[in-house]
Each structure stands twice: as structure tokens, then as C-alpha cells.
Design brief:
The protein is an alpha+beta fold and 195 residues long. The protein contains 7 helices and 9 strands, in the order H-E-E-E-E-E-E-E-H-E-E-H-H-H-H-H. The chain is 40% helix and 28% strand.
Length: 195
């Protein structure tokens, strides 16, 4: 949810902010233009703060943290949680964000509050799979899904870039899909969880 919301507001997974380097070879100038996704000082960025999407300017950076000026206040945010804001794509993406918000708001009343393995608050759909996986460390959920689906090593690599909650959610969704298709039963999953 988090990454999709931010990507929708920023115009996708990559930014329109670009790094440009000109080199001259004789009379011809060559331009190497690569898209930059990691924000630097001076970039306008967006990030998720609880359920709110905030926007500000990167004032400074130190290590993996950025100080972002949001109006009158400055907040410290992990740099990897920031997305470069793309004002050009904002109008086109507003419609997508509204559609996504409608979908999320339609399902939100069905979500159940829960506490994860490390004591943080979270939400899930409240089914037996979600309840069982909530108590597990996210990497263990990925390994469990690999074992149940016969995809050893595949999911760990595929989900390496995701945050822990996304790893748990995607792995759980794969298990639910296998149950819906009839590849697994809830009893098989429950037995494997208790083994």
C-alpha cells in the first residue's frame, strides 16, 4: 500500500529528476541522461507518515537519514522512505490515487487491528491465514510460502526489495491464491504451521 501510494503521487517508480553529464568528443557532444530515484539535498519529496502523505524539501542528509523541511517544521526521515515528487505527473496521477483510495476505503472497515511479531500495530483481513502469519517474522513467512508452494529461493529473491509488511502480505496472498485454486487446503497450511 505505502509504496504504491507514493509511486502514484510521484509519477511512478522513477523520478523525472535527472542527472545530466555532457562529454565532448571532437565536435560532437554526447549526453548521458539517467533517471535518479534517490533524493538529494534540494529535492522536493513525498513520504508516508502514518496514514498521511506529506511533502517537503530535503534540507540536508547524513548517512541513511534526510532532514526534510515541511513548511515550518523539519523532520528526520529515512532517505529510502522518500520519493522524489513529480509535479508534472500529479494531475494525471490524481485520478489513479482517487481510484485507489476508493478501493482501500471500501475494504478498510473489514480490516482487523493486530499486533505484529515485533509488537507494532498493523491491520489485516482477519482470516485464519493472516492471523497465523502475523505472529511470524516476515522472512519466515516468505520461507514458509516458498516451502508450501514449492518455490524454494524464488520468493526470497523476488521480494528482497520490499519492506517487511509487504513481504508478509505478498507471501500470504500467494498462499491464499493457492488455497482458492485448490493447490493447497487450509488444513495443510495449518498443519505445516504447527509442524
Amino acid at each position: 500500500m505505502r509504496r504504491r501510494d507514493i509511486m502514484a503521487l510521484s509519477g511512478g517508480g522513477t523520478s523525472r529528476a535527472q542527472t545530466r553529464r555532457d562529454t565532448h568528443h571532437g565536435d560532437e557532444a554526447m549526453t548521458d541522461t539517467t533517471e535518479r530515484t534517490t533524493p538529494t539535498t534540494g529535492d522536493i519529496v513525498i513520504w508516508l507518515d502514518g496514514e498521511d502523505i506529506r511533502r517537503g524539501e530535503v534540507a540536508s542528509q547524513k548517512g541513511s537519514w534526510s532532514t526534510v523541511r515541511d513548511g515550518e517544521t523539519e523532520v528526520k526521515v529515512r532517505t529510502k522512505a522518500l520519493e522524489i515528487f513529480d509535479p508534472e505527473g500529479e494531475d494525471d496521477e490524481d485520478e489513479k490515487v482517487r481510484a485507489m483510495s476508493k478501493t482501500l476505503n471500501a475494504y478498510k472497515p473489514t480490516y482487523k487491528p493486530t499486533i505484529t511479531h515485533n509488537g507494532t500495530k498493523s491491520l489485516n483481513n482477519g482470516d485464519a491465514i493472516a492471523e497465523a502469519l502475523t505472529a511470524m517474522v516476515p522472512l519466515d513467512v516468505v520461507l514458509f510460502a516458498e516451502k508450501m508452494l514449492g518455490k524454494e529461493g524464488e520468493l526470497t529473491e523476488r521480494y528482497a526489495h520490499l519492506n517487511p509488511g509487504q513481504k508478509r502480505m505478498n507471501s500470504g496472498n500467494l498462499i491464499r491464491g493457492a488455497i482458492r485454486r485448490g493447490d493447497l487446503t487450509e488444513e495443510e497450511v495449518a498443519a505445516a504451521l504447527t509442524a
